[in-house]
Amino acid sequence: MELKYTKNILSINNKILTKLDKFVINFTNFLNKYCNYVIISGYIPILFGRTRGTEDVDVFIEHIDKKKFGLFYNDLIRNNYYFLNPENENGLYEMLEEKLGIRAAKKDTIIPNIEMKFIKDDIDNFTLKNHVKVILNKEFNFFISPIEIEIPYKLFLGSEKDIEDALYLWNIFQEKLDKKLINKFMKELNVSGEQYGIKI
Amino acid sequence: MFLVNSMELKFDKEKNFQERLWFINHYSNWVKRVSNKVWSRQQADFINSLFLNAQSYTLSPSEYLEMVDAGRKARKKDLVKKLFYIFTLIH
Do A167 and B50 touch (CB under 8 A)? Predict the structure, then answer.
């Protein structure tokens, strides 16, 4: 695998794009127009080669006002997306305000879908502020969570799938990670990956 | 009898998990060794075939949301248990 990971930029070239990658690239083109966002969780190990399926892509977005959300909503609808939730534009915005996730997909499909939430706490805020720009095949850009947060967070979630994701990311990125930062989040979330071979 | 069966199941589950961790190590070493074109070709074939199957998904959006919600509630219960355990360790 050839990839470059400097502080806030991660570039990967010559990747044959999956349908999931193309879906993410397309959707983030809309997000880029309206708000700061960061992709978290399951899509990240998949982007870097983990071979497993996923139904959804999780995204944190910064708090935006109702008017801006309306513009974003209408842009998506005009471009063949719909929301799986039965709520209308106002109801969806209220859900976001209540820190609930809302899901969008391409018309007449359910999978894959994007689940969006407003950021809700300090870790979400840190993740958004320190997002990493992915440059894919020198052509496409979008933002993901720092790998240093993703690994402890996956260990914290703790399902077998999450631990496998954490181990995979560790194996791929271990020489490139900021060890101080990853340790900080390991401590904050009170997790350790030693028993799985994640030895920082 | 029930106890013996559940112990056997637990043992198998752990063994299975260890085997999967072994596979993650093996697979990630391979991904690191080969060019992006090689691993991403295999990955694209696999993931694209999953999405092809997903086109015949029979659930409606509301049924899908109910299913996701039920799974999330179950995971949340586990997480609360874990947080409670961490809390008791700290205090």
Answer: no
